Amino acid sequence: MSGHSKFNNIKHKKARQDFARAREFLKLSEKLRYLISQKKIDLAEALSLTRKHGFIKKKVLNIWEKCLEEPKKKGEENLHRLYQAPFEVMIYAEGERRSLLEWEIKNQLKKIESSILSNYFRKFNEWKIREKQFNLEEYLLSSLQGGWIYKIEEIKYKNKEIIIIFLEKQFGEILKNLFVDYEIIKKIIWRPSFFIVEKEAREYVKKLIKSIEDKKIEIYSNVDLNN
C-alpha cells in the first residue's frame, strides 16, 4: 500500500511540475510573439532569451516565422468598403486590403456602414462564356423557354465572348445546363439601384477610377459613365 502511495505522490508531483512548466512556456511564447511583432527583438536575441528556459530551437523558429507572416497575410486579405462621396456619389469598393486602404486615404474618402449597402447597390451574377462554333447569343435566345429570357438583366457580346448578367441564383442552374460544355468565368458584380447623371459626378468618379494604380481594387458607383 505504501508503494502505491509513493507512486501516486511521484505522479502528482510530476503533474504539478509539468503544469508549471507549461504555464511558463505559454507566458514566454506570448512575450516572444509580442517582442517580435513590435520588432523589439531579433532572431539571435529570441533564441538567447528562450534558451535559458529550455525552449526547443525549432519551436522558437516556428513562432518567429508565424509572426513575420501574419502582417503579410493581413495586408493581402480582401476588404469591402462603402463610401459617401461628393455630388451625392456612392462608392462600393472591394479588393486587397493594403491597396484599398491606401486608395481610400489618397482620395480622402468617407467610409460609412456597409450594412446599408443594399439601399444603394444590388448584387448580380456576371457569367462570361467564350463562343465556339456558333453564335452564343442566338443559341441562348432560342433555348430559353417560357419567361426565363426575362430573367436576364443584360447581355453583352464582345471579342467572341457573351457576357450574361442576371440576378436569380436559380437562373444560373438553367444556364449551367445550357452551356455544360463551355468554360464559364463567374463573377459577382454590384449595380446601383439608381443612377446619377450630373457632369460633376461623372468627372469625380472618372478621377477615382484613374487613381487606381493596380488591379487589386474594383469599384462600383451610382454614376452613369456612359453618357
Radius of gyration: 29 Å
Number of domains: 3
Average of pLDDT: 81
- The biggest beta sheet, please? 4 strands, antiparallel
CATH level-four homologous superfamily name of the largest domain: YebC, transcriptional regulation domain
Distance between the termini: 96 Å
The helix/strand order is HHHEEHEEHEEHEHE
**CATH-defined topology of the largest domain:** Alpha-Beta Plaits
- Looking at the overall shape, the CATH architecture of the largest domain is 2-Layer Sandwich
* Global morphology: elongated
The total beta strand count reads 8
Weakly predicted, low-confidence segments: none
| Computed structural class | alpha+beta
Q: What does this protein look like?
A:
It is a single chain. By secondary structure, the chain is an alpha+beta fold. It has 3 domains: 2-74; 77-120 and 193-227, Alpha-Beta Plaits, CATH 3.30.70; 121-192, YebC, transcriptional regulation domain (Alpha-Beta Plaits, 2-Layer Sandwich), CATH 3.30.70. The chain has 7 helices and 8 strands, in the order H-H-H-E-E-H-E-E-H-E-E-H-E-H-E. The protein has helices at 2-37, 43-51, 57-76, 97-106, 136-143, 169-178, 199-210; strands at residues 78-84, 90-96, 110-112, 121-130, 152-158, 161-166, 184-192, 217-221. The strands form 2 sheets. Strands 3-1-2-8 form a 4-stranded antiparallel beta sheet. The protein is elongated and about 85 Å long. The protein starts with a helix and ends in a 6-residue tail after the last strand. The mean pLDDT is 81.
